[in-house]
Write a structure and sequence with these properties.
alpha/beta; 4-stranded antiparallel beta sheet; 10 helices; about 25% helix
Length: about 350
């Protein structure tokens, strides 16, 4: 009998993969490591605040090295993504902001959740009562923010590492999965659990943006501004992995309702995160199933779900043409070709 390779057998995917998700304003890569190939995606994202929070960068590098050497600690149902910095320019320049002076953790579109107090704005609050116009000229104005938006769109959960408060808090609005994840992380790490960041109001925050999309989303604040605190955070990540069935929501097969039309959750996340009805117009078709892919037509454009492109930041394809293409489709497709599934 010929060897398996000559019979066309496929090799199992490698347990550790290095990925580049995009680039900063000055062209530095936003890169990470994926350990495991399971459908429940856990992201650990560090160093949103550049130089002043360089210890979170060091922590993420240490976590990367640990799990590269111990990939078997990631359960088969989980993919662990570790991203050491989403603000490489701020890290290189020694500033909290990106190279255009924008606070990336005040730049996300948080205007579609149920908590108006966290809505994005240009003028933002910071430590010691400091108020500045560093939220950016508009939501997700920065290339780093746009990479983050697409990088975690199909995540089950995101851990956003910051410093230094010595606590863990979930997304602001009442999101049960975020609260459960924050409480578990706090217990395992020894950090204090807080229901929200108590020192000042955060607007346009990454944790609130992700929570509004149904992603379990928490912010651990390291206790110091200098040390990576590996032991505490490794224990917490290990605890999350050990309890993944409870803490990492399975990829949703639930259909999300939008303007009377239902759609798969990932399509809804993409539509909502990229502007919703203001950009695409309202949805005008039910789900169209073709070649294993789901398509929905909107007034101005249509979206096609392509989950195999997730690591390339292309879980959904978009194209011009909505109403006209949907009308053309109705003229030629049998009714059985479009239905909710």
């Amino acid at each position: 009998m010929p060897p398996a390779a000559s019979r066309g057998a496929q090799s199992p995917p490698p347990p550790v993969v290095e990925l580049t998700f995009g680039a900063s304003l000055q062209g530095r890569p936003l890169s990470g490591t994926r350990i495991g190939v399971g459908p429940r995606k856990l992201f650990v994202v560090a160093n949103t605040h550049g130089g002043p929070e360089a210890n979170t960068y060091q922590l993420a590098l240490a976590l990367q090295e640990y799990f590269r050497l111990n990939p078997d600690e990631v359960p088969p149902e989980v993919s662990l993504y570790i991203v050491p910095t989403v603000n490489p320019d701020g890290l290189a320049l020694g500033t909290r902001f990106n190279s255009r002076g924008v606070d990336l953790n005040r730049n996300m579109d948080t205007n579609f959740d149920d908590c108006p107090e966290n809505d994005w704005r240009t003028t933002v609050e910071g430590a010691y009562g400091y108020v500045s116009d560093t939220g950016g000229p508009f939501v997700e104005s920065e290339p780093e923010s746009q990479v983050v938006r697409d990088m975690v769109l199909d995540a089950s959960a995101v851990i956003w590492l910051h410093s230094s408060g010595g606590d863990v808090f979930p997304a602001l609005c009442e999101h049960a999965a975020s609260i459960a994840l924050a409480q578990a992380y706090a217990q395992a790490s020894g950090y204090r659990y807080d229901r929200f960041w108590i020192n000042y109001n955060i607007t346009g925050g990454m944790h609130d943006w992700a929570g509004a999309l149904g992603i379990a989303s928490i912010t651990p604040e390291l206790a110091t501004g200098t040390e990576p605190e590996l032991a505490a955070n490794l224990a917490a990540v290990q605890a999350v992995l050990a309890n993944y069935e409870r803490l990492l929501p399975a990829p949703s097969t639930t259909i999300e309702a939008a303007s009377g039309v239902e759609m798969p959750a990932l399509l809804w996340r993409y539509w909502r995160a990229h502007g919703g009805p203001d950009w695409f117009g309202p949805p005008i078709s039910p789900v169209v199933q073709s070649n294993g892919r789901a398509t929905i037509y909107f007034a101005e454009q249509h979206l096609v779900l392509t989950p195999e492109g997730a690591d390339a930041l292309q879980p959904v394809q978009r194209a011009d043409g909505g109403q006209e293409l949907w009308t053309e489709y109705l003229l030629h497709a049998p009714e059985s070709a479009y239905q909710l599934r």
